[in-house]
Every structure is written in C-alpha cells, then in structure tokens.
Amino acid sequence: MDRRIFAIAFLAGALVGASAQSTADARWVGIWNADVNGLPTSTLTLATDTGELGGTVVLDMVSDEGGTPHVIASDPHVLINPHVDGGTLSFHVKMQKPDGSVVMRDFTVALLSPGNANFHCVNCGADAPVVHLVKNR
To answer: What confidence tens digit (pLDDT) does each residue in 77-130 have?
Structure first.
C-alpha cells in the first residue's frame, strides 16, 4: 500500500513539473521576427516538439553599400543548448567565419512583455546591436 501511495505521489509531482515546464515554454514557442527600418535582421523559431525548448535562428546580413540598406545573405543556424532562466532565453550558435574558422557565438533573448523581446549577441563585439523581436505566431 505504501508503494502505491509513493508511486501516485511521484507521478503527480512529475505531471505538475511537466505542466509548469510547458507553461514556461509557451511564452517562447513561436516565430519571432526582427527588423531594422523595415529590413529583416533575424528570425527565431522556437518549439517544444522534443519535449524541450529548441529551434533555429536565421541571421540576415544587411549591407548599405550603394546607399540603400538591403539584405545580402541569410545564415540559418540550429540553437545549441537553449535554456530559459526567468525571462531570459540563452543559446549558442556555431558560425563559420569567412576564413573557414568556426566560432561559437552566445545569444540572449530577454522578454520585455508577452510577444516582445530584445535579442543580443553577447560575444560579437562591443558594437553588437540589441535588436527588438516581435512574436508573430
């Protein structure tokens, strides 16, 4: 009898934990877009299909060569080790530099309000911008 009570209590605790996790992830799940002056600068797609938060980010490269800013390339990446701490999502992205070397870049997404966040590469240099993201779906 004691084993059954323990098993029921354990299962109930696991279900409550799973429910709390999915509620926290619901804030993040969806497609997030950023633009600067009408030009796309990134798309962050987040889902919990595997039971954990994961996704991809597409970083658009913008050039103002020729006088008018325009997107010259889009660089897709899989999120590495995404994790949420309070209202901040952090993850790594593996990027190949033009010389062929590979670097890991660290990103944060800080929730401002439901569906609004700031996106930042924390180790991309002092001039790395903070970009506003809007959750579209």
So the answer is: 999 999 999 999 999 999 998 899 999 999 999 999 999 999 999 999 998 889
Nearest CA among 31, 6, 25, 17 for reference residue 82: 25
Number of domains within the chain = 1
CATH number of the domain bearing residue 123: 2.40.128
Buried residues in 16-47 as b, exposed as e (16+ CB within 10 A):
eeeeeeeeebebbbeebbbbeeeeebbbbbbe
Can you name the residues that pair with 14 across neighbouring β-strands? none
Question: Facing residues of 135 across strands?
Answer: 32
